[in-house]
Amino acid sequence: MNVKRVVVTGLGALTPIGGNVRAYWQGLSQGVSGAAPITRFDASKRRVRFACELKGYQPEDYFERKEARKMDPCSQYALVVCEEALKDAGVLEKGNLERIGVVWGTGIGGLQSLSESIINFSRGGETPKMSPFFIPKMIANMPAGNISIKYGLRGPNLTTVSACASASNALIDAAQLIQLDHADVIVAGGSEATITDIGVSGFSAMNALSERNEDPQTASRPFDKGRDGFVMGEGAGALILESYEHAQARGAKIYAEFMGVGMSADAYHITAPHPDGLGAVMVMKNALQHAGIPPEAVDYINVHGTSTPLGDASEAKAIQQVFGAHVYQLSISATKSMTGHLLGASGAVESIASILALQHQIIPPTINHFTDDETFDPGMNFTFNQAQSRPVNVVMSNTFGFGGHNTSIVYKKWEI
After folding, report:
1. 333: CB partners within 8 A, 6+ apart
2. Of residues 74, 82, 274, 304, which has the active-site annotation?
3. What predicted TM-score, i.e. pTM, was given to this entire model?
4. For burial by CB atoms within 10 Å, which of 142, 166, 172, 353 has the most?
């Protein structure tokens, strides 16, 4: 079977540091922090009182009020970024809608709708009422369904749920569907909307979150000695993946080529990474092998880099093992230091960051570095605090999820 080449022809982003792709890149390249005190609910009595919320997002700017009320923010965010990505790609004008699909990732889905509905139901007395939209707003597959309904996309339609690796798994599944000729185009990505009282409190109870309430903007500190947990984020990212033949035939603009993927499992613990990074080592090796390139070909890794003590140490160790002496030529950065952790959407927004690094030949920084961690090799370039210009031809994006789900995706700068 002839395996088709896959390219990226459209991008859409809604993040805590920028409400579209252009603003997102500006925030990334300038090292902007999206963290601030929580405004979505009263967090004054909570252990964690800050997060990376979307700035200035109002549903009525994108949807009619009646339409917005039928959708959880997880679906709203998905539709916003898909609108941007599809316009960017211009694919609907010339595409066969029966050959355009949707693969969407989310770690949790409609958590806001779930928590609000349960609270209201429990307060309903002897005859509690439930909204008929409760289930459609809450179930995780609804963003993918809403995208296909809005645009009439009748190709493959599915949802990936693998915690923080969900969006990357969506991108991988989308690319493989195109390679196997099940579709010409796939709208792929992920969305997450978990900055709710129950969401933040749940992650806080796991001791997963930073508790720097007095200094939220510097709380996300990947690879810093003082890192104490991740910062919750929200938003979405969409990529239009397309077969090269289809993109070429319609004269599409191409951002990058989707070169190869890796997938693995830690098979170790429900939340902690393997201390020796075994799953991370496997997934990066698998991605390089699938892309057909040596480790020396990679210029930049957008790492999972959550700012947790165990996770950052495990990933750094794995990178050293996979890349050997080339590790000193690599640029590495953790953009979660700016966006916070978008959970199931992180793989999409970080793939976009990686592709924009190819476009602009600039490595976005890992901000909030104050103290070196002596357990990390001082020769590794984590791009601390300032963006760096350099030639960038091949990038890797890592995402790892609770349950031990690991993904790596390799993108290559597009050259005719």
Report:
1. 300, 301, 302, 303, 305, 363, 364, 365, 366, 382, 383
2. 304
3. 0.97
4. 166
